[in-house]
Amino acid sequence: MEQTRSKLSTWIRESITARMLIVGFLLLVLLIPLAFVKELIKERKHRQEDVVNEINDKWGDEVVLSGPILKVPYKEIKEVKSFNSETNSYEIKNEEHIDYAYFFPMDLNINAQVDTKPLNRSIYKSVVYTSDVDVKGVFPKIEFEKDRILPENILWNKATILIQTSNLKGIRNTVKTTLNNQTLSMAPVYNNAVLNTIESVPITNFATMHAQETSFRFNLKVNGSKTMKFVPIGKTTQASMASNWASPSFDGMFLPEDGSREISSDGFKASWKILQINRQFEQSFYDKIPDLTPFAFGAKLIVPVNEYAKSERASKYGILVIALTLLVFLLIQLVSKIYIHPFQYVMIGLALVMFYTLLISISEHSSFLKAYLLASAAVLGLVTLYSRTILKNFKFAILVGASLMCLYGFIYVIIQLEDYALLVGSIGLFIILATIMFFSKKIDWENK
User: Fold this and answer.
1) Contact status, residue 160 vs residue 202, Cβ threshold 8 Å
2) What is the spatial distance between Cα 87 and Cα 91, in angstroms, rounded to a whole number?
3) Could you give the residue ranges of the DSSP H alpha helices within 364-393?
């Protein structure tokens, strides 16, 4: 029995295959704590998203604005067939119903000034905005379909103006619409549409106004977050947006006009022009307005990649860092004939896993760059000093430290890149593989 144990111990110490199998097994074992660290990062990231969503919900969610829309009621006579039990026969009666027609502007001009600011809760931060939106334009001469509505059934004196928005609670001013020289107060109404609606009081003299073009104007101050969009309901819709936010993403069905986009560290400016021919809906609807939000356009105030996203991207390279570091130790062991105990491999692997817990915890209270430098310096110093102890050679310790420093530097560069991350990563891995192949040729692989 003792002889068998002695042979097994000798085989483990001297066999290249045995040492490679042990290192491979330990690498698989180290995937367990690495997986726990990844879950920790995801948990903290989800916690941040929940807090940010709660902040945004209380301040004001994303804003989609559609309006103004002219709403004109009309009477419609419908034949209703009912059964009379006394005469045991069906009777046809005429019943009067009130329906509505909706007319969109001929010209619609929107000017939005979006001012952003950060809101903090504990260690979490959200970016919200207050927008000052000035809308003006012209309604065309209102004409119903002659074969559908009789003129005497149109209730001109009960016509109103509608404004639709996705964010009623974010409105911060008393909204009033000016129609020619008449000012109309507005109030919210209940509806089942995608967008919430505020409606004006009836337009008292619209019976005479509708026969000619009618100018309009209203101003809206609204709190929002993430996105500001407009629905292009004008026959010609022109919009401009300016903000102090330096990282916009132009979102929706339509992009700004060529040459109108100006983005700098101080903010951005952009303008749009959309014609009726550019979108697939007409200028008037009867009975109800369909959901037109898919045609909306505007800007998304994107937050640059935050610390959690960067930490999550860094953790995806964790297996690469651990595998290459253990491989460096294995090659040193094979070249120098120094025995490294499996427990020591585990300690080195756990130190490398600790890098990610340090990174996420420090980055919550500082910038990602500072967190990355502090975490990498701590782990780099720990592994280098530990390798000096177990390898008993300062030259090998320097080699381990230099290798680990190059790895952390390489991964940081990849994290910062977006468009060229795959290219740089592939080139870097190719160089690493070539280097390992070069040094491995010095090993006597006959010793199995």
Assistant:
1) yes
2) 9
3) 368-391
Find, among 78, 76, 90, the residue nearest to 145 by Cα.
76
Say whether 236 sits in a helix, a strand or coil: strand
Q: What are 312's two structure tokens?
A: 């999550």
pLDDT by residue, tens only, the chain of 448 residues: 555 555 545 545 556 666 677 777 777 877 787 788 778 777 777 777 777 777 777 777 888 888 899 988 888 777 666 666 666 666 667 677 788 889 999 999 999 998 888 777 766 677 788 889 999 999 988 887 755 677 777 888 888 889 888 888 888 888 888 888 888 888 888 776 678 888 888 888 877 777 788 899 999 998 888 888 999 999 999 999 998 888 888 888 888 888 788 888 888 899 999 998 888 888 888 888 888 889 999 888 876 656 777 777 777 777 777 777 777 777 777 777 777 777 887 888 888 888 888 888 887 777 778 888 898 888 888 888 888 887 777 787 888 888 888 888 877 887 777 666 667 667 777 777 777 777 666 666 555 4
Residue 239: burial class (beta carbons within 10 Å; 0-12, 13-18, 19+):
buried
Q: Based on the domain organization, do 144 and 217 belong to the same domain?
A: yes
Tokens of 16: 């290249």
Going by C-beta distance under 8 Å and a sequence separation of 6 or more, which residues neighbour residue 331?
436, 439, 440, 443
Tokens 């430290």 appear where? 401
Closest among 18, 16, 102 to 66, alpha carbons compared: 102
- Which of 338, 314, 318 minimizes the C-alpha distance to 391? 338
Q: Where are the beta strands (DSSP E) in 85-213?
A: 89-103, 107-121, 124-139, 160-165, 176-179, 182-189, 196-200
E-assigned strand segments in 157-276: 160-165, 176-179, 182-189, 196-200, 214-225, 227-230, 236-243, 248-252, 262-264, 267-275
What is the C-alpha separation between 108 and 298, in angstroms, rounded? Answer: 15
Domain that holds residue 95: 62-303
317 lies in a domain? yes
Q: pTM for the whole thing?
A: 0.70
Where is 3: in which H helix or E strand? helix 2-14
The answer as to whether 210 is a domain residue is yes
Residues 280 and 143 in one domain: yes
Give the Cα separation of 22 and 16 in Å (integer).
10
What residue type is assigned to position 185 of the chain? S
Same-domain status, 93 and 210:
yes
- 254 and 117 in a common domain: yes
